[in-house]
Amino acid sequence: MKNNHIKQSETILTGDRATGPLHLGHYVGSLKQRVELQSNHKQTILVADMQGLTDNANNPSIVSENILNVVADYLAVGIDPKLTTICLQSQLPALTELTMLYSNLVTIARLERNPTVKNEIHQKGFARSIPAGFLTYPISQAADITAFNATLIPVGDDQLPMIEQTNEIVRKINSLAKKRVLNECRPLLSKSSRLPSTDGKSKMSKSNGKPINLGSNEKEIRQAVRSMYTDPNHQSIDSPGRIAGNVVFTYLDTFHSDIAYVKQLKEHYQRGGLGDGYTKAILEECLQEFIRPIRKRRNELLRDKSFLIEVLKSGSKKSQIETKKVLLQVKDIFGLNILN
Ligand code: TRP
After folding, report:
1. For 206-244, how does the pLDDT look when each residue is reduced to its tens digit (9 = 90+)?
2. Is 55 in the pocket of ligand 1 (CB under 6 A)?
3. Are residues 144 and 278 in the same domain?
4. Count of domains in the chain?
5. pLDDT-derived band of residue 49, with 50, 70 and 90 as boundaries?
6. Which residue lies with its CA nearest to atom 8 of ligand 1?
7. Which DSSP symbol is given to 8?
8. What is d(CA 332, CA 223) in angstroms, rounded to the nearest whole number?
9. What's the pTM value of the predicted model, to 2 decimals?
10. Which range marks the domain in which residue 289 is found?
């Protein structure tokens, strides 16, 4: 996609909870855009291990075991640590301090109204046993964003409520300071719509069915494509098939490089005479080709983890300095500066 409309002066921040390896949905929704943005913009990616713990504290290895997987995924798809700063949330104490300060500006009622959090509470079956850290993670996300004074946040639409809450906090801080200390931010939504899960029931995610991870092996890719939802009424090869809702075609639209060929396939499928086995074979080849180099690079990086650790260490060190500056400004507003 073209990002000509994005000013060069924008500061970009994104983050991912480190709760599992990244998948094709992450690639389409955000990673691809991050790779494109990194050459012309200041970009930071935060590996959100603390946020990952907000609903995994009883099983913390889910987070600790996935931190380096996520970094390997970034590098394998082309994020270049020389162009993008990659840092680890738990290494940045300023974020935690900001979270604590901001939490005085947000009511419990406001937190309970956040539609994404509401949805997650329902999905995870928390009922009335919601971890306090989970309910308040939008405040911590506001700390993430403001600590870098980020103005542009490439995210999926489920993250829009977090951006809204961040900007409410920004306005409160600026009004307390009686000047602009923090910048408001805006989302950058991916132009391509969300990639569906292979069963077509929802978007691709860790919690919906089995996602196709960026590190999937050949067999996993084959199985995922074979089980894909197509058109349940397309009973025989000769009968006409439907494109709308047919996951195989959604993926072909997203990943196949030859648009004219996919158009031709669609016409043939709609006319009748094209079987699902055929369209799936074409998609499988295309996904195998797409994932093969990513998997190879990812495996290489994970074989010797020292490079990944070095990337996180140096990115975190740089970010510690940057985020501390913002923390001092915010502490100042609250009068927490008498010893400075
Ligand atoms: N909430 C985001 C997610 O679930 C992860 C995240 C944490 C994030 N901090 C962030 C995203 C800051 C953007 C900016 O994917």
Report:
1. 777 789 999 999 999 999 999 999 999 998 999 999 999
2. no
3. no
4. 2
5. very high
6. 15
7. T
8. 57
9. 0.94
10. 218-300
